[in-house]
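SEVERITY: medium
COMPONENT: batch folding queue
REPORTER: lab tech (J.R.)

DESCRIPTION
The queue accepted two submissions in a row. Attaching both inputs and their returned structure tokens so the on-call engineer can compare them side by side.

ATTACHMENT 1
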Amino acid sequence: MNRSTLSSSNKKFTLSIAKAIDGFLKFKVAEGLSQRTVDSYEYYLNQWMNHIGDQDVAKIKSSDLTNYLAWMRTEYKPKRWNGNEDPLSAKSLRNVYIALRAFYTWLNKEFNLPNPAKEITPPKFPQHVIQTFSKEDIEKLIKACIYSREAQTEQRHKFVMRRPSANRDQAIVLTLLDTGLRATELCSLTVEDVDLKTGKVNVRHGVGGGAKGGKGRVTYLGKVARKAVWRYLATREDGSDPKAPLFISAGDRPFNRDSLRILIRRLGERAQIAHVHPHKFRHTFAITYLRSGGDVFTLQSLLGHGSLDMVRHYAQIAEVDVENAHRKASPVDNWRL
């Protein structure tokens, strides 16, 4: 080995924060994380780099990350479109911590660098109140899907008209309620993903399926929801095309999270119900499923949760005893081993 090669091999390895962030984001895209999650990581990590400067990642200590989180909590003034400069919410601060922790966990695994985030206590935030729809709320929403608002002219009495998108909107509401799908998962469904004979709904693996973390699963539609989806597809020219989007918005474009949220919000306004959004259907499905006798472990699978944490929260609201549910399901106890 010559002197130049030896000198090169003994040179200390350095990696700038900017290069590390670029590699981390590419790794997460290859791993199958949703674009929304990758964008969130990119935003928080670049914000952190702009604050501390583009230096060697190995030089960052736990105290540096702790000081940054403290600064974000007390001094940082968010730039919001409405001019509001209120401090970051506890949930947003935790998202900053999660991005930093994921970043340094990756660096530790890939380059065997110390993980300063491991020594930091995660910022706590209060569990948000879970809101659900009542049966009466759903009945009002379905009516809002079908009929326009009551109108009155000088020549005629009050009247309502059937909305052109009635079949589609009713099918969307019933599908969200009956499956507990996330908004992106519903928007990613194609015609072939739903078996209208059995009710089986296939949330595909990977980014294309819209599932959180790219983890696909199977959930189900009941008879009433299946009929609603069938009626809607029967009115579409591409309703039998297996690769066509299950639901399409204006201009025959697939729905996305934003367009779906706008549709659901407008239905809520028409039905005069507050706080109507796609995820509220998921909460309603989970709570109703447990109160109707469903078990927490099957619910975890249907919702696609990686752990029982959120399901336990649903169980507390539904007043379901997780310990008792496990006792009933325990193979060791039931098989009397």
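ATTACHMENT 2
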Amino acid sequence: MTLSPYEAKELFQWFTDKEDFLVLDVRNEKDFNRFQVESPYPFNMMNVSYYDFMEIEEQSVAKVPKGKPVRIVCAKEGSAKYVGEILVKHGFDDVRYLTGGIKTWGNLLVPRIVHDEDNYKLYQFIRPGKASCSYGICTDTEMMLVDPSRNIDFYINFAKEKGCKIIKTFESHLQADYIAGSRQIAEKTGADFFGGIDFDGTKTGAKSVTDQEIHNFSPGGPDVKILLTPGHTPGSLTFIIDDTYMLSGDTVFIQSVGRPDLGGQAESWSVMLYNTLQKVAKLDDSLLVLPGHYMDWSEADEDLIFCLTFRQVKDRNKDVFAMDEKAFGQYIKDNMRPQPPEYALVRLANANTEQYDDERQEELDLGKNECAATAYAKAQKDS
């Protein structure tokens, strides 16, 4: 019996293969409750603090059931190794610890291919730790990105593996819930970085865009059309790929629409979002919506891809799309809740007006998104 490591991508694969094992998270209760690993399918998980294993070893070990593999998670790796050694000493088989700690789960990107014909491929990069999605559109030699995360090496290496050069990277808006990667990718690869008016006055070097602007690949490939869809932020963008796919950013989700209150101007931004929803509602119902975030894994299809027709999305959100402007404004007010304090700092990082070291970026970037306007918030306040 020996202790061995595992990586975040292996953990996700075990989840998707529905393997039977126990996730043992040894962080303190506060950190565990703030952010933890999640799976598309039910799994076994428990939280027993590393400090408990230090101070009351026998009682802590007794809490861990034997008979199935144990996959330990901690903040940075060391605590998981310590606990793993204790479990091995007590006769546990198949004990492994997560290399790099919980941050590697938070930064994990899982590629899913959405389209592979007509001389181009479209990838959805799912970030399970953030419930967010970024995208890559590529031909045989070139690639464009939409809303990449700060795990820039993943995108650069992915493009290299596909034999592609990253030529353009887009941000659907100035992100508040995670640190974006477009600026750094542009700096490292020479790609052009594009964004809406959210980036006016920032130090990002983002190039401005106009409504209905079309971007092309040099050796063919699909048209990438930009729509100005203000509301979640004043500069929010939506992307129409090949008149087939709608990369909706944080404007339209599968189960909700974007929050217009994160900028502290809920009333005026709500009006913008209402007008935008009236505008996009006229788009083709057959468009396939690819959102910037998801609420939970129930929104994914059998291939674990987050994608529905616009008709289906509108049907799921029919009450919102049917509201008049006054009712929509009230809906937003009813569902407002405090945004995480980290969001203000993340905005500064994404505007490049403040720089943080890697450790601080990890702290700011950890945790699920809260970008949807959803009735869940009101239900929580009323309960």
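NOTES FROM REPORTER
The longest helix spans residues 266-280.
No errors were logged for either attachment.
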